[in-house]
Each structure stands twice: as C-alpha cells, then as structure tokens.
Write a structure and sequence with these properties.
The protein is of the alpha/beta class. The chain has one domain (3-265): Rossmann fold (3-Layer(aba) Sandwich). It has helices spanning 39-43, 67-80, 93-104, 123-137, 142-153, 162-173, 181-193, 220-229, 245-248, 250-261; strands at 3-6, 9-16, 21-25, 47-51, 86-91, 109-115, 208-212, 234-238. The strands form two sheets. It has a six-stranded mixed β-sheet with strand order 1-2-4-3-5-6. Strands 7-8 form a two-stranded parallel sheet. β1 (3-6) and β2 form a beta hairpin. α4 (123-137) runs antiparallel to α7 (181-193). The chain is globular and about 45 Å long. It starts with a strand and ends in an 8-residue tail after the last helix.
Length: 269
C-alpha cells in the first residue's frame, strides 16, 4: 500500500473499491484498520481512501500532531490523488479532523459525516484521556489498558460475550503497528486543544451527524450540538451502539452512509 511524503513524515493510506471518493478518518489511537467492519460494504459503492493519521499505525509517529495538521494531511492526500472533492466520514477524533477539513478546505469536501464526535472535548474526557496517556507512558499492563478503553466505547452487551472480548484483546495486543505512548499523548493533547464550536455555523457542506444512542464517552449532547449548529445538518442515532458505532452496528452504519451519500439510491443500494 502507498505512502504519501509530507514535509514532516509519511502518511500511509489504502485504497479500496470503486465509485465516488470517500475518505475515512479514524479516531484516537486508531488507524485505517479500525474501519475493517465496514470496508466490504462501503467498497461496493465507493472508492475508499483510508489513511493512518499522523502519529499512528504505519504513518510517521514521531511528528507534531494537531487537529489542524491532520486536516491539512487530508487535503494534501486528496489533492495528491487528483480528486477535486470527496465525502468525509470521521469517527470521534477523526470527526474533529473531518470538521476542520470542511471548515478550512470546503472546496474539497462534498459531504460531511462526523461519527460519535464533537466540536470540543469535555473537561472530563480531557482528564480521562490524559490518564490513559499517563498509564501507557508508565507501562501499564496493555490488556488492562485496552479493557479500560473498551469499557468506555462499547455497549455493556459487548462484554457479555467473553469469547468476543478475548478475541478483540488478542487482536489489539498482537497488532503489528502499535502506537507509541508518546504519539498517543500528542493525539490526546491535540484533542484537548481543539475547539470549533464558534465556527460550526460556518460549515457550508451537507452534513449528517451519526451517533450511537448508548455512547457514554461523547454523549448525545455533543451530537445534538453539531446537528443544531451546523446549518441544515441532520442527526441519526443508532440503537445498539455506543461510541464505536461502526464496530457494533456495521450494517446499519453502512446503510445510513448509503442513504446520505448516495441519496439517489434510496435506503438500500
């Protein structure tokens, strides 16, 4: 898979499928592989552009990290691929990056879908993420660390299937491109520094805000604020999902993207 040369490093990305271009932007500590549950369905109707954000995965990790820089990376990537415009779907921190891209480079963004995201992180979450960063830096047992994060991003029912939990933990613990503690800490600081609340009325592209109804990390008030303050935005709440919407309800997630991004196709393509 290719890498794009940046001024301060390399940006790894993957291309899948065919159709209108769709850029998928991952969240905190996540990379391109976090979209695996929905890639097959989306690739049937879209050309998917799936990068590892700076600071994670196979992209350069030892580099400056801000939401603004990640938005710039998205713009550089789209231009390098010769695309005049693409739809943007961003999960959590990736939704912040997608939002910033739409604000800074509106000519490049056809439609915008922030997923389980916010225009500004809460003070509680900034403390929580800082604690996660401190635990990782201190060498906390990785299984314990991952379970703590999973408890915030998955529904309670996820933990009732012990075999499923064990498989997910085994995958995370054996992942061949782990994020460094330093890079995770820089992502946490990037999220804490981001505040686009006052600029939400400036978003000038069609927007659909998606959230899991059981999300306890970024609750309904965050999604509702995005939908209320972005002109013309709609809000979709998905049942049976917490923060990791596309992992827990991939079929419904893909269906909602079809509906919004391919409106001429109707509810089901």
């Amino acid at each position: 898979m290719p890498k794009l040369q940046l001024n301060d490093g390399e940006l790894y990305y993957e291309l899948h499928g065919s159709g209108p271009p769709l850029l998928l932007i991952a969240g905190l500590a996540s990379d391109s592989q976090s979209w695996l549950p929905v890639l097959p369905g989306l690739a049937e109707h879209f050309t998917l552009i799936v990068p590892d954000n700076r600071g994670v995965g196979r992209s350069t990790q030892d580099c400056p990290i801000t939401i603004e820089l990640m938005a710039q990376d998205c713009a550089v990537l789209l231009r390098a691929l010769g695309l005049e415009r693409a739809a943007l779907v961003g999960h959590s921190m990736g939704g912040m990056v997608a939002l910033e891209t739409a604000l800074r480079y509106p000519q490049l963004v056809g439609r915008l879908v922030p997923v389980a995201s916010s225009a500004r992180n809460s003070a509680r979450n900034n403390l929580l993420f800082s604690d996660w960063a401190a635990g990782l830096e201190a060498g906390q047992d990785r299984a314990v660390w991952f379970r703590s994060i999973l408890s915030w991003i998955m529904t309670e029912s996820f933990f009732e299937d012990q075999q499923q939990l064990d498989l997910v933990l085994a995958y995370l613990l054996s992942y061949p491109w782990p994020q460094t503690a330093e890079a995770f800490g820089r992502q946490v600081k990037a999220i804490a520094a981001f505040d686009a609340v006052a600029r939400l009325p400036e978003v000038a592209v069609p927007t659909c805000v998606i959230a899991g109804r059981q999300d306890i990390l970024l609750g309904m008030e965050h999604a509702e604020q995005l939908a209320r303050q972005i002109p013309g935005a709609e809000l979709v709440l998905i049942e049976g999902a917490a923060h990791s919407v596309h992992t827990e309800q991939p079929e419904r997630f893909v269906q909602e993207l079809y509906r919004f991004l391919l409106p001429e196709e109707g509810e089901t393509p």
